Amino acid sequence: QVQLVESGGGLAQAGGSLRLSCAASRSIFSLNAMGWYRQAPGKQRELVAAIRIGSISYYLDSVKGRFTISRDNAKNTVYLQMNSLKPEDTAVYYCNAVVQTGPYEYDYWGQGTQVTVSS
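and the corresponding structure tokens:
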């Protein structure tokens, strides 16, 4: 089991930057994956970026080249650096951790942090 606490959301202008942090209650070194999802009003939650064991990363096409996911194992924290923000990036951003327990994977979620980008 793992608890996740996000921080760093807020209001930014188009073209600006924000950095989201997700602090985990346990070591993230052995987690199968950690990532960031977002959900805009009236839309489904979508995977924005993820980093798996072996540092394999994934990015949503619309954020490639603008967002960077990274991890600090010593601080049990994952970051999402968001540059060149666009109004369409406005959403609640959720941190996610995938934990392997026996043959199964379980998802854990943070409470979410609001990101609002003004034009």
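(Above: one complete record from the training split.) The radius of gyration is 14 Å.
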